[in-house]
Design a protein that fits this description.
- This protein has 444 residues and is an alpha/beta fold.
- The strands form five sheets. The protein has a seven-stranded mixed beta sheet with strand order 1-2-6-5-3-4-7, sandwiched between helices. A four-stranded mixed beta sheet has the order 9-8-10-11, sandwiched between helices. It has a three-stranded antiparallel beta sheet with strand order 16-18-17, with helices on one face.
- Strand 1 and strand 2 form a beta hairpin.
Amino acid sequence: MKLFGTDGVRGKAGEFLDAMTTMKLAMAAGIFFRKHSYTNKILVGKDTRKSGYMIENALVSGLTAVGYDVIQIGPMPTPAIAYLTESMRCDAGIMISASHNPYDDNGVKFFDKHGNKLGVGCEKEIENIYYNDDLLLSSQVIGKEIGSSKRIDDVIGRYIVSIKSSFPKDLTLAGMRIVLDCANGAAYKVGPTILEELGADVIVVNDKPNGYNINEQCGALHPENIGKLVTEYRADIGIALDGDADRLVIIDEKGEVVDGDKLLGSLCVFLEDENLLQGKSCVATVMSNKALEDYLNSHDLKLHRTDVGDKHVLKTMHDESINFGGEQSGHIIFGDVAKTGDGLASALQVLALILKSGKKASEVLNTFDLYPQLLVNLQVSEKIPLEDIEGLAAILDGIRKKGMRDLIRYSGTENKLRVLLEGKDEKLVKSKMDELITFFKSNL
């Protein structure tokens, strides 16, 4: 598809994702959702990027042009849009965000009336409508049929209550000191409120968005920054979110970042111990370390792997009736709590695990060792199909014969080639990665 990537439509705001493109996309989405309309309402939220104003207004124009009424709720986390779309009985929800990308990027993510991300088939149908100029023209309405829009500023409370209710009622965060990094993003209000209302002593940083500083040297992409604050303030834990708050990175009391696979493993076993895990399984992507799989197997639990992207994790969770999964990068999905990755909901489950264990974060979240793994992102000017790159198959065949695991793919949102190698011999992994980097630099 030309428009949709691995997570909605994303690109440079004002260039790829300009006002005209956004308005046409909104019209196409409106035409698609009208086929099964229930309330004729669509919810629109956004993160804190300045370009969100332009994109929001273009979305409203496109949706009202085809007869939809729009509810605008301003800056809110992506998982809040998923929750509120269903809670407020809307036909669909739209989140304006480029997640962890720099401020000058932006994106549009769609949710159905149940708060679920759209599948590839639905995205393809919207894209087909987008390129059908005759249908776009004939679907515009006039007179009393033109839609309306209104802004509601008090829905934040609904989301806060829903997240707080996921925390065990017999527990409290009183006496726990937490450093929270909001990434100058969408959770800058709800994040501190939830933790404080549950009793925590919260030290909040990067909670003053100005339209340009979202994700800038902060949040889930730079958790090492609050690692220093955790030790300085003698905090029990650090919590780092990304710009739209669907990603979580945990920093233990020593100021060290907890690996995403270790977090998944610890939480999965915790859910099993609490008799809350469905299917005795966890869903993760091909990026996850094999040590996670071996750790879960040692507890008689199974790991299902999917392609990269939380929507693929969600689909497998749904298909296999599994209620827990996530990505190594920090998208953690508790199916009984949220319809997508939710950094704040996941953080509360981590805190519940720590409190119930009676141990420090560094002990309870560090239960197995990872196998040596390297991930390198290479900038490319053109995404040549990997199967067309002469000599690559022979190099990979040699790597696999040495018992190593590889994953090479292009980014769905950026002009980058992601190269992952994993094996039990660290020196061999590094040597083969150097060989691959040299190869790709000379061929791409």
